[in-house]
Write a structure and sequence with these properties.
The protein has 302 residues and is mainly α. The chain has 14 helices and 2 strands; from the N terminus they run H-H-E-E-H-H-H-H-H-H-H-H-H-H-H-H. The protein folds into 2 domains: 113 residues, Alpha Horseshoe (Serine Threonine Protein Phosphatase 5, Tetratricopeptide repeat), CATH 1.25.40.10; 139 residues.
Length: 302
């Protein structure tokens, strides 16, 4: 470092800081990463004016991730927010670097609790939109973002549902539909990016993607589409090697039973079959009562 060029010093600081972090010495890594950031900022200053550079944003992200691992979320958010702004200005709103920073900050905001939930949802949806459309499609990242969004909205829905009376459950279902329907086009884009190679390389991630997407469709009350996705998930879970998918398969089957109960076409078919059966069945004898039938199935609001 004493004899190297000024430009090389930043890279040496950054590399050493990242290695320390990956060795589990995150607290020791932070001062070195800050040195890298300081170096890059001085390198990109002209006439006392700080210039934007993607390398400065990358340093901010590395520091933000280190603070996040130490559960120092406020400091982490400060650096990630700075990185996101710089990436937008230097490489554009549609860059993979912007998508990564947006998703990372969204997950961090979600971890900060209810006061940051609105911002978290906006960031995560923005990141998901970028991830499903970018050239280098990464299935695991898409699945993680979709799962975070589904879970955050579900927490929100449970709180809202707890405040409603029984007569207002219809409005709860309408709210669920409005909340989750916005993600259906993104699910369709993601499905269009999936190739046979994904099933060969990472069948497990593909299976849980289909399950999560199926759940999301059902929450949006798109039961037929949800069934299609869940059946695809079941097919894949049956073939995942070296992992017990029993609970995941059970979850899919439970969701399919809900979809069947709520699918209008299925319900109409069952009613017709029931009517035909009653028409052909002998009438009960006088004085003999039948057992009262129990309601089968369930809905998301029950």
């Amino acid at each position: 470092m004493k004899h190297g060029s000024f430009g090389n010093k930043g890279g040496i600081y950054m590399g050493l800081g990242l290695v320390r972090d990956r060795m589990g010495k995150t607290r020791d890594a932070l001062p070195i990463l800050h040195q890298a950031l300081d170096h890059y900022q001085r390198e990109h200053t002209r006439g006392y004016q700080q210039l934007d550079s993607s390398i400065i944003a990358k340093a901010h992200m590395s520091i933000g991730k280190a603070y996040e691992r130490l559960s120092e979320f406020d400091d982490a958010a400060k650096h990630m927010s700075e990185a996101l702004g710089i990436f937008k200005r230097t490489v554009g709103n549609n860059s993979p670097l912007t998508a990564h920073a947006m998703g990372s900050l969204g997950k961090l905001r979600a971890a900060q609790g209810p006061s940051k939930q609105r911002e978290a949802l906006s960031l995560l949806k923005g990141a998901l939109t970028l991830e499903v459309n970018k050239d280098a499609f990464h299935l695991e990242t898409v699945w993680e973002l979709l799962t975070r969004l589904k879970d955050l909205h579900m927490e929100e829905a449970k709180e809202r549902h707890a405040r409603l009376s029984a007569s207002q459950h219809g409005s709860h279902l309408a709210a669920l539909n409005a909340t989750y329907s916005q993600y259906l086009p993104l699910v369709e884009i993601a499905r269009g990016r999936i190739t046979p190679q994904h099933e060969k390389d990472d069948i497990g991630t593909l299976a849980v993607f289909y399950k999560t997407a199926g759940e999301l469709c059902m929450l949006a009350q798109e039961y037929q589409q949800g069934e299609t996705l869940l059946h695809e998930a079941l097919r894949l879970f049956e073939n995942v090697p070296n992992f017990d998918c029993g609970s995941l398969i059970e979850g899919c089957n439970m969701l399919l039973s809900i979809a069947e109960t709520n699918n209008p076409q299925r319900s109409a078919l069952h009613k017709n079959k029931a009517s035909e059966g009653l028409a052909s069945a002998p009438s009960p004898r006088h004085g003999q009562g039948g057992k009262k039938g129990s309601k089968s199935g369930c809905r998301w609001d029950e």
